[in-house]
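As a warm-up, study this chain.
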Amino acid sequence: MRVFITGGTGLIGSAVVAELLGNGHTVLALTRSDASAQVAEAAGAEPIRGGLADLDVLRAGVTKADGVIHLAFANDFSSPEALANAVAEESAALAALGEALVGSDRPFVTCSGTPAVPGRASTEADSIPAEGPLGGRGRAVMGVLDLASRGVRSSAVRLPRTVHNNGAGGFAGVLTGIARRTGVSGYPADGTQRWPAVHAHDAAVLFRLALERAEAGTAWHAVADEGDPVRDIAEVIGRRLDLPVESVPPQTYGALGAIFAADQPSSSAHTRQVLGWEPKHPSLLADLENIQP
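Now compare it with the structure written out below.
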């Protein structure tokens, strides 16, 4: 299959590209710069120059592909305004990609986050939030899944709070970065809230399975670790960096403060049973041992 991918040179995207190429697919990768184009070429993908805001480039990429995987996001959490702009850019890109696929019966795999459900681990049957700081992303993903009624084999891979590789990535990576800057390995509230996680290479396998097998309008959970207490995550970071571990105010995390403080375990039992997905790479706590002082 010839696959057009956005975000193909990031931590998750590079793993997805390798997984696709290793299983006989060819890859067209959206690249924003000469440097990212060189990374894509070195990985074995064909670069298509442009960004998420270049809607004509996105449409052109769809015309060259048998399927689409979307992973790109600005990841600017510096302020509520910056986050809103990133969400709006992605929403417009998803709409353009989806419209270009209508009536083709081609697969369109997008990504979202696992939802938080009070009192239990969330499942694939739970809805993702359509309100709050990231509510726009939820609405855009639901729009992608609704394309199932318009001749698109659309699906969504829901990613946990931390997608990691070699000790880096996701919410845990944010904690590590803040710890290096402030000299404290912090956690919000009492640290008993749980964050799910998955290794990037395990997530990549699920993206490929969704591309190849997922029925239209379905959602899947890329969850290997159902939920590690944030305090446990901070303790590994603190030990690796030789820093004190303590609770810090939610505003330490800016626009993500409320999300960081929420208990949000998640299950992937349905995904494993239906798609035969089985994570094989190290857990988050084990992978964090790769953090270099």
